[in-house]
Amino acid sequence: MSLILRYMRLSDVRPVLAIDRLCFHPSWSQDSYAFEIQESNVSHMVVLEQLARGLQREPVRQDGWLSQLGGRLRGSGQVNYRTGAILGYGGLWKIEGEAHVSTIATHPDCRGHGYGEILLAGMFGKALQLNAEFIVLEVRVSNAVAQSLYRKYGFSRFGRKRNYYRNDREDAWDMRVTLDQETRRCFSRLYTDLSRQHDLHDNYSFASRPRR
Prior knowledge:
This protein is 32% helix and 31% strand.
C-alpha cells in the first residue's frame, strides 16, 4: 500500500475529526483544526493518507543535510494523487527553539502497522527542517506503547505533569529530545528504515508550508 505524508488541508478536517473523536476525550473542535491550518503561524499539521495507484512525482527543492536524507526516501518529490483514506494525523508547533508535538493519532482500525511511527518520524524531520533545538511532547503515564516508541527516537522523561488530562485527571510524562548530531544520525537511520518498510512518499517533512 502506498502512503503519503502531507500537510493537512481544510478538506481533511472531517475525517481527522472522526479519528480524533475515537481516540481522545475531549477531542479538538472543527474550529481548532481550521485555526491550526489557516491562521496559526507556528503550526504544521500533517496527515498520513493512503494513495491511489498511477501517480506522478514532481521535484521538490531541498537544502542542507536533510536533502541527503530526503534523496534516499521515496518522498524526494511532490506527488500528484487522488484522495484516499486518512489513516492518521499529527500536529507540530514550532516556537523559537522548541518543536512541540501537539497531537498525534492513528485510526483505531489501523494500529499495529507502524503508521504512528511514520507520523512521529515525519514531525521529527519537520522539526529538523525548521531548525528546532529540541522536541517536546506529553504522553499518558499509562501509555507504555507510546513511551516505548518515543524512547526509540531518543525522547526521555523530563518531568511529570499532574492531572494533565481533563477527562480522567491522569498524569502525563513530559518527554523531550535534544536535536544534537547523534540524535540526527539516529533519526536518519530510523527514517531510512521506515522508507524501506513502507511505500512512503513524504511531502511534509522536507516541503515548505503551503500558502494560505
